[in-house]
Design brief:
Layout lengths: L2 E5 L6 H9 L17 E7 L2 E7 L11 H15 L2 E7 L6 H12 L4 E6 L7 H8 L7 E2 L8 H22 L24 E6 L6 H9 L18 E6 L2 E7 L10 H18 L2 E7 L6 H12 L3 E7 L7 H15 L8 E3 L8 H15 L5 H14 L12 E8 L4 E6 L7 H14 L8 E6 L2
Parallel strand pairs: 1-3, 1-4, 4-5, 5-6, 7-9, 7-10, 10-11, 11-12, 14-15
Antiparallel strand pairs: 2-3, 8-9, 13-14
Bound molecules: guanosine-5'-diphosphate (GDP).
Length: 457
């Protein structure tokens, strides 16, 4: 089931939250002093969300020199078991060096993190909230596990992750031919955390999605044919591609159900939406004979809005005679029709012959790498100073916009926060100036970049 791990240094309030989520006060059983309890597990809930909660509270009893090492190991284990980690800091204490150790583990493990500043009631916590951005783990939720505050916010951030997980579990289920035996419940739960790179191949019917996937997986696991809609409901396959484990989502499955053309379009888009949500990198596959169709544009735009890395691949390149001219034309159309995807790679392929697939794979890997890119705060602030000098922000109505501090709060896709005075007065054009600057100066093609402004007086 969906698993949430609560991690953080001792005494931040992990157990209090655990008890609140699990809903009963589990007595802390410690018959032998000095024995470190292991990870605690319970069935947690917030509103209608039900999940497994893991608490790494056992650490609080550990007081000897090996604390650091044990903390690290236990946390790493919790992270490996979890779908999402709630990283708790103490808003009254501020961000301490020990917190950085945990932040570091979470980053290294590439964990899905919800940052929570506990004991957040009252004004005293304000400074910590700002400091917490600098951990580079996203927007902190202010909560009080003791008083039950912030549970709504926690639910809000948890829900999309939870939903995506449930949807994915449902989508994954049919293709696994598991023989459910009687004793299945006793079988050990093996966490499979060697996560494959998740790709969705999207595009209009007959663009060649199934042919492409067939070529990659090297066997006829999907059916292809000349008429639209012949692909059966094979929604995803996992396959090593050039030594890299990948899970490939196809959006073709649902097309079969659509009989009418207009319905077809609708279904393809909503189906595409589903695949796009699961994916890390979205490959928009175009047919060289009818590139950049309405449907292609919609799905590419969707991928950008969902914050996915995007690679555009032009298929059936084998039938193109005027390759040079065509390529130029394609690049122009791309720039004009999909300005929101500026810098995304455009690769020509032939799914049929397999030509260009190595370049496609490289483009996917690179887009994925950029999507995960993290830039140090020091580097960002030096850059920001330069940008401000080169082109100072406007002074609408005589009010000077002062930008004080910038930090990356998220990856996948990269997201940044700028602390600024009068964020409401900042024109869109200035935001675009900064975003484009980030893209060029830090070499981040093919990924959406988010920039948030926060009021800091
Ligand atoms: P899907 O609907 O996007 O899954 O498209 P299919 O994979 O079913 O392909 C539609 C048609 O295009 C089939 O007849 C394929 O043989 C053909 N096709 C796919 N890729 C290529 C290619 O690279 N070159 C050529 N010439 N034909 C292709």
């Amino acid at each position: 089931s969906f698993t949430l791990a609560i991690v953080g240094r001792p005494n931040v309030g992990k157990s209090t939250l655990f008890n609140r989520l699990v809903g009963k006060k589990l007595a802390l059983v410690d018959d032998q002093p000095g024995v470190t309890r292991d990870l605690r597990e319970g069935e947690g809930r917030i509103a209608d969300l039900r999940f497994t909660v893991i608490d790494s509270a056992g650490l609080e009893e550990a007081t000897d020199d090996s604390l650091q090492g044990r903390m690290r190991r236990l946390t790493e284990r919790a992270v490996e078991m979890a779908d999402v980690c709630l990283f708790m800091i103490d808003a009254r204490a501020g961000v301490l060096p020990a917190d950085e150790v945990f932040a570091d583990i979470l980053r290294k493990k590439n964990a899905n993190v919800i940052l929570a500043a506990n004991k957040g009631e009252g004004k005293a916590a304000d400074a910590t909230i700002l400091e917490a951005y600098a951990l580079g783990l996203g927007e902190p939720i202010r909560m009080s596990a003791e008083h039950g505050e912030g549970m709504g916010e926690l639910m809000d951030v948890l829900r999309p992750i939870y939903d995506a997980h449930e949807e994915k579990a449902a989508a994954d289920a049919p293709e696994v031919d598991v023989d459910v035996g009687e004793d299945d419940e006793d079988a050990p739960r093996i966490p499979t955390r060697a996560k494959p790179l998740q790709i969705a191949v999207v595009g209009r019917p007959n663009a060649g999605k199934s042919t492409l996937i067939n070529k990659i997986i090297g066997e006829e696991r999907l059916l292809t044919g000349p008429e639209a809609g012949i692909t059966r409901d094979a929604i995803s396959v996992q396959q090593d591609w050039g030594g890299v484990p990948m899970r490939i989502f196809d959006t073709a499955g649902m097309r079969r159900k659509a009989k009418v053309q207009e319905k077809l379009e609708k279904l393809s888009v909503s189906d595409g939406l589903r695949a796009v949500k699961f994916a890390e990198v979205v490959v928009v596959l175009l047919d060289v004979e009818i590139p950049f169709e309405q449907q292609d544009l919609r799905i590419a735009d969707l991928a950008e809005r969902e914050g996915r890395a995007v690679v555009v691949a032009v298929n059936k390149w084998d039938v193109e005679d005027e390759k040079q001219t065509k390529l130029k034309e394609l690049r122009e159309s791309f720039e004009r029709l999909l300005p929101q995807l500026r810098g995304a790679p455009l690769v020509t392929v032939s799914a049929k012959t397999g030509k260009g697939l190595d370049r496609l794979q490289q483009a996917i890997m690179r887009a994925h790498e950029v999507w995960n890119r993290r830039i140090s705060t020091a580097h960002l602030n030096r850059w920001l100073t330069g940008m401000l000098e080169q082109h100072p922000p406007p002074a609408p109505g005589g009010k000077r916009i002062k930008m004080r501090y910038m930090t990356q709060v998220k990856t996948r896709p990269p997201a940044f926060v700028v602390m600024t005075s009068h964020p409401d007065l900042m024109p869109e054009s200035y935001k675009r100036y900064l975003i484009n600057g980030l893209r060029v100066d830090f070499d981040m093609p093919g990924t959406p970049i988010r920039l948030y402004l926060r009021d800091q007086g």
